[in-house]
Structure formats: structure tokens, C-alpha cells
User: Fold these one by one.
Assistant:
Number 1:
Amino acid sequence: MTSNILLIIMKKMLMINGSPRRNGSSSAILKAIEEKCSPKGYECEKIDLGDLEIMHCKGCMYCKKNGKCVTDDDMTPLYGKLQDADAVVLAVPVYFGAETGLFKNFIDRLYALVDNKDGVRTVRSGKPKKGVIAINCGAPDGNMTYHGMMTHLFTVLKSFGVTDVSSGIIPKASPDTVKDSQFLNDLLASVDFQFSS
Ligand SMILES: Cc1cc2nc3c(=O)[nH]c(=O)nc-3n(C[C@H](O)[C@H](O)[C@H](O)COP(=O)(O)O)c2cc1C
């Protein structure tokens, strides 16, 4: 008797919802990206930052001496999840021209993964990763306005060792209609190509 065993190794995609709204536009965007990537072998885990208590970075530099953050809160399990992920997706709404405060807290706390020895900066990012950045906003011309924010988020992912990134700014976003946005569909086309290999 022969038995054929098909072994499928799933890859891990960590999806960060940077909105305090659990079912807002950022969430709908993450769902659309998940629908694109699940069939390509990605197991997607969504983290709703709004459900978590993540304290701001204290700037105490404890992490530089001890290799971990001094604050033990809902950020603690995220370090391991981030290091373990094969792909990281950031969905972030624009608040007054920048990311939400809760998303900024999350980003600043990543400093605990940064080592600085003899002036050389390295990041304990686990394994090589792909990345996706989806900014969304209310302004109809937001796709023309918020490139500075995108540059900033590129820097964040780059310092985390991510170099293969798809990105898009989705203007005039609303939870019910964002799935029909041409800007989201352009991003999904890019994601489709990026995650095909
Ligand atoms: C406090 C606050 C500030 C905002 N500031 C901006 C802004 O500066 N520019 C903009 O285009 N939209 C702004 N918006 C609109 C949100 O970016 C937009 O509704 C976004 O799609 C919300 O995403 P969410 O549904 O995932 O929360 C703001 C919304 C809030 C609540």
C-alpha cells in the first residue's frame, strides 16, 4: 500500500490593526489582504492594538542592558510573534496627519529589539520577512498628502530588517466601501505579486 503524504508548511503573517476600532476600515483592509494571502499558504493572525494595553516607551534604556523591555504588559507576547513571523502587515489610519497614538506606542516599544554595540545598530528581528503597509484616511486626496507618513513607516519596517514591501495609501476610506476602492485593489495586486514567490 502506498500512501502519499502532502506536507504543507504554512507561513506566518502577523497583521497589526493600528486603529482603536475593531471593525473599521483598517480591519476591512486586513481582511482583504488575508483573503489574498491565505490561499498562498499564509496563516494570518490579526492583532487589534485597540484591545491591548500597551504602555508608551519610558526611554529608560533598560532594554539596552537587559535585552528586554522593563514594562511587562500586552506588548510582551508580541515581541516573539513579530520575530517568528514570515510577514508583517501594518494597517494604520491617519490621525491628524500621523499614525494613531496606540500604533506609535507599539512602534516605540520595538526599540527593545534593537541592539547597539560599539555604535553598530542591529535588530533582533528573527527571520527575513516580507512587509505590507496600508495607510488609510478620510480625506479624498489623502493619497497625495500622507507620503511623509509612508516614508516613516518604511523606515520602521526597514529597521526591522524588512526590505520587500508593498504599500498603499487608501483615501476616503469607510469600513463598508473600502473593499471597492481602486487604491486598495492596486495594493492587493501588488500583494498578490509579492506573495506569489
Ligand atoms: C482623531 C482622528 C483624527 C483624524 N485625522 C485625520 C487626518 O488628519 N486626515 C485624514 O484624512 N483623516 C483623518 N481621520 C479619519 C481617519 O483616518 C479615517 O476615518 C480612517 O479610515 C479610520 O480608520 P479605521 O476605521 O480603521 O479607524 C481622523 C480620524 C480621527 C478619529
Note: The chain has one domain: 11-192.
Number 2:
Amino acid sequence: MDSAKNLPVAVIGAGPVGLAAAAHLIERGLEPLIFEAGPSAGAAIEQWRHIRLFSPWRFNIDDAAVRLLEAAGWEPPRPTALPYGGELIDRYLAPLAALPAIGSRLQTGARVLAVSRAGMDKTHTRNREGTPFVVRVEHADGETRDHTVAGVIDASGTWSTRNPLGTSGLPAIGEDSAADRISSPLPDVTGKDRTAFAGRRVLVVGAGHSAANTLINLADLAKDKPATRILWAVRGASAAKVYGGGDADGLPARGQLGARLRRLVEAGTIGLHTRFGIASLKSLDSGVTVGSVDGRTLEADVVVPCTGFRPDLDILRELRLDLDPAVEAPTELGPLIDPEFHSCGTVPPHGAALLAHPDKDFYIVGMKSYGRAPTFLLATGYEQVRSVAAALAGDHEAADTVQLELPETGVCSSDAGTSCDVPAAAAVASESSCCAAPEPVLVGFPTGLSHGRSSDNN
Ligand SMILES: Cc1cc2nc3c(=O)[nH]c(=O)nc-3n(C[C@H](O)[C@H](O)[C@H](O)COP(=O)(O)OP(=O)(O)OC[C@H]3O[C@@H](n4cnc5c(N)ncnc54)[C@H](O)[C@@H]3O)c2cc1C
């Protein structure tokens, strides 16, 4: 950031990773300017405040943020407890955002519309590196303003861009016009959204932890409101991946979730429909008819789309990015987390070097850095922003000394080409096989599943 030393660094998003980025920048003597589209910090997590995290507190808080908080007399939560999303906000993000050091640099109701280089479109190369960025923001007062900054950290997550219900990555025919029959991705079915689900026919679509959480909560609702009917559609031939690694899961709460779901399906409480790729939705007065690619139909009152998320790359259109063509994560990170080959939940530690783009001093971090891969963990994001802040401050040694403090694990394997169940640096050294690298450096919480989608024989 040589030519722009006196300008601030824009941080897009005041989720846990954006706020952690701001804390690290402040420690480095850099000036963060945080833009948050929602009304307060943690606006995306606010949408799933009723869901319990799988990882305990000690892995959910950032060191630099904690240093700021503790200086103001903050009491840390019990490190081994599992917080709800709401507790993550109330006990950590809200107090952090309220600190003068953060609050004075945080603008809420400020939606970033675009990022570019000042006075240059994407095709201009001369003096590009030394040219500041311009961040275009729609502010709470309804005005749109351009902000000139030295660097940009995009921590805007993926919550606002869910994957469509349809197969092929496209909305199903009729999906848009059936929007009033489609809920948010993680509705609070036993709490504030209860009336929309009690006694209704509910179709949950998808095969991840969000689907598992929603299905289990619907089963709780059905105990109280027996007229509630629970349908579950997955694209694959079985739900085995959602049932997960059980006892082999490094996060017991996550393993138990899958086991409970399996029991509910086996008991008939949940009606599972496999190989149900969605082709169409037809909204009627009486409900919605959901059609599969092979001609089957399901009738429901409301559809819950647990189909995952994708990054919003539109706001980055004028930047020069280097993204993996499949995963839409930074090119070097993509193969390490590609859900086609990995479901193990672990990742090689990585920082600024791996997250860099051709447009120098621009970084995508946090959930958005994983692109379409679903396995992101906060602890990974905190290490990303520690390293990125160091890089922006010119401390390349600290940036390159990656310090991810998660348990080391040896149970992950990749099925990219071969399967080998060895503790390995996985694809760090080889993008095609986890067997090639000699040193065990994978860290994280193993799911107990050793392969990605490509191992499914359907
Ligand atoms: C249900 C669920 C459970 C999870 N459980 C765990 C867990 O147990 N452990 C774990 O480590 N991880 C977990 N994760 C994964 C991940 O850690 C979370 O998604 C986390 O919220 C990601 O943090 P983030 O800061 O990257 O993004 P977010 O929390 O999504 O924050 C992004 C912020 O950017 C804002 N924003 C978006 N677009 C713009 C824009 N254009 N301009 C300005 N602001 C914008 C949003 O309003 C939001 O506040 C879970 C995720 C989900 C969905």
C-alpha cells in the first residue's frame, strides 16, 4: 500500500471475520473503514440466531478482537461451551462493535455496490498497483457515495446469495414466481417463524447441516402440532452424507445432529425423497407443486431452501480476480476445499499469500473466501485476517507465518484421483491427490467423512 499509506482500508461486512479484520488492522496502525449492509454487526448471523454453533467458544473468537474487548473489561464466555448464533452476537459481536475503537469506524446500513481502482476500469494496467481503490456505497440516508481507500478486505459472507432450488445451478422453472412459498434458508420454525410452519406441509430441500437443523426442529414442532408434515428432498441416492461421521466427527454436536436425523427418517417422522433433483415449482392457491427432473411431484405449503450459498461476485466485477473456476474461491485455495473431492472439514492453514489476487491489496476473506464450498470455520477466517492485515502493513514475515490453532487431524482424505486416508498436507503440494505430500499439516474438526461428492456412485 506504498502510494496510499494515509488512506484507510475498507472492510466490507461487519460479521465476525470483518470485525476481526478491523481489530487486526487497528493493531497494525492501519485505519479500517467498515461498511455493513445490515442494521447492526452480525446481521447475517441474526438470521440464524436460533441455531447452535458446532464449534466451542474458544474457536469462535478472534485474538485481536479479544485483546480490544478485554482492555474494556469484557468477560470471555466459557471456552468449551457451544454458543447459539444469537449468543455469538450478544456476547461477542455486539460488545465488540460497541467499543469506541470499532464503533467509530463502523457504518451500518451501508451496502457496498461495487469496488474498483480509482479512475481505472479493469482493462487499465499502467500504474494500477499504486492506484487507490474506490468503494461505492449506498448509505442509510439513501445517498450513494464513493470512498477512496488504500486496500480492500471483502468479508461480506455469502448469506445474501443462496443457491437456487433447481438443478443445473439455475432457478427451477417457476421458482421466482413461487417466491411467496419459499422461506429463508434457516427459518426459526419453533420460534418466531412458528406460525408459518405449524400444521403445514413443509418440504426441506438440501443435504447439509442447515437441512439437518431445520428437519430436527420441524420434528420438535410436529410433536406439539401433529398435523405438521415433514418432507425432505435430496438430489443424491441417499442421505448418508448428511447423517455424517457420527462418533468419528471431531465436533460431537455435529456428529449427534446427523445421528438424530437418521433416527427421525427411520421412524417415518420425516419423509425422505432421494434422487429428487428439482425441475419446476408451480404455486397454487392450495400450495406449491414441486416437480423433479424424472417427473415425480411433491405437494407442500412451504419450501425451505437449504441448498447452500454462493459468493456475490457482481460487486467485484471491475477488479482483477484469480478464482478457481469450480469453487469460486481464490485459485490456490479452491482445490483444497472443493466439495467434489473433500468433505472432511479440515484445511491446510493459509493466509495472505494464498488469498492474494492480481489486484494487489485486495483480499476476499471469511465465508466468502470459500466460494461455494460449505466447510468454512471462523478460526480459519481469523487466521486469514491476521495474515492479511500483516501483509497490508508490509510485515511479510508475519503474513507468511501461518498460525492456525486448530487441532491437527489425520483422518481426512481426498478422493481426488485416489483415496489414501493418511494425515497429509493434502493438496498443498499436490492439487490432485492427498497422498503426494509428506508432512501432516491439516487442521480443523474432521467430519468423520473421508471423501467428497465424487466418491458417490450415483
Ligand atoms: C447455520 C450456520 C452455522 C454455522 N456454524 C459454524 C460453527 O459452528 N463454527 C464455525 O466456525 N463456523 C460456522 N458457520 C460458518 C461461518 O463461520 C459463519 O457463516 C460466519 O458467519 C461467517 O462469518 P463471515 O464474517 O465470513 O460472514 P457473515 O457472518 O455472513 O458476515 C458478512 C456480513 O457482511 C454483510 N454484507 C453482505 N454483503 C454486503 C455488502 N454488499 N455491503 C456491506 N455489507 C455486506 C452482511 O450483512 C454480514 O453482516 C456456520 C454458518 C451457518 C450458516
Note: The CA atoms of residues 428 and 438 lie 10 Å apart.
